[in-house]
Here is the input.
Amino acid sequence: MLEYPSISVLGRDPAHRNCVLNGNAFQQDTIQSFNGWQYAAFYSYLENEKEPLYIHLSRRKLPRDSWETLVLKDYPQTTDDGHNTVQHIRIRYRHSQTGVATTPEAFTWDASLFTGHLSRLPGLGAEHDELLSYVTYPRFVPLGQSLLFSFRTGKAGLGDDHLAVYSPQPSTPTVYGYTLLGTNLKGIANNPYIHGLSYRGNRLHATWVYRGFVHYEGWDDPLDTKHKAQRGPNSADNNYDICYAYSDDGGLTWRNGAGALIADLGRGESVRPDSPGITAFEIPKGKGLTNQEAQAVDSAGGVHVLNRDALDGEIRWKHYYRSPEGVWTQRALPYLQGVQGGHRGRLAVSQDDSLYLILPETTSPGLTILKASNESGYAQYERVWRADAGYPPTEPLVDTERLGYDNVLSVFTRASAADGKDGVDVVVLDFKL
Here is the structure.
């Protein structure tokens, strides 16, 4: 069993909103460590004013320093939309002064360290403005000295995923900027929803589900918002199949699980729904498959996916696993019932290659952590921690970089306020593994 975690409060959660803004599975990078410091981003309000909301950015020196938090007040968030989170919906980009991440102790943590919000990525000119005019589900993946940027265009059931890389510019190697690589996943009467992008052992892994598109009146109206509805015409009921591909050159070319080349972005190609060998599991529509749940990769190159389906008659959370030899298996998880449309969980791999599954409970405001060891072939699951109350419905997020740094599992989530007041806090739970 895990020892009870240390809990630190980042700030107040805007729980008065209908939609959850802090703790969604697609926020891959909300908590992240770099160079011995940990950073977390969340939406909150200013003291005594619950509206509007502002981005709060916190940092602390590991392992135990107190959090420092700054507020970026030039972008008030006024829309009660669970998609409009930190890292999400339209390009609102900013960056710090040079050196803030590499020499953090030399800088006082203050909003003046950052630019105002920008609508164009450094290195990308006006020719890309149309492509970036409506961006959803952005993710950032460290690739050595470069940074991969993944984003979706389009709408639910009708969209594509694209890649850009932040790296030294060919003409001026001392200057960094973004270069568009291309469309890595092309939707055709559907859209791919990735579980994540994981870079380990010089290999970039991607798993995803497809969502088929159902035409409806007004679908082609630029102002249409029906596609955002969780129970709308293009809801998760239309999700199907779990797919897999990998890249050994930072996302430029993609191969299926058998190693066959299926897309070269440099030639304008994309991984398509009809690309050979990409389907790991055939799961029909209407079988409970969700989108963007979780993915992790162990040090041997094993790929782990968390999702759920009802192929066995009842909907259950499942661990889908691709061994380093390329063999896929699936196992239903014990202890918890997966509920269609329920909140999504998270995966993390520790330094000894144990797999941790962080799961929000569906029948109570609880949180459960399961463990599957490498020695068992990831085939046996032990419940190593559980809180049966105090954690309102949230999708927990994990600092994967910190696991490699000091083997502490930092979980970003929401918790009932511990100060005796009503309300909800944004918190970080630290488990020593």
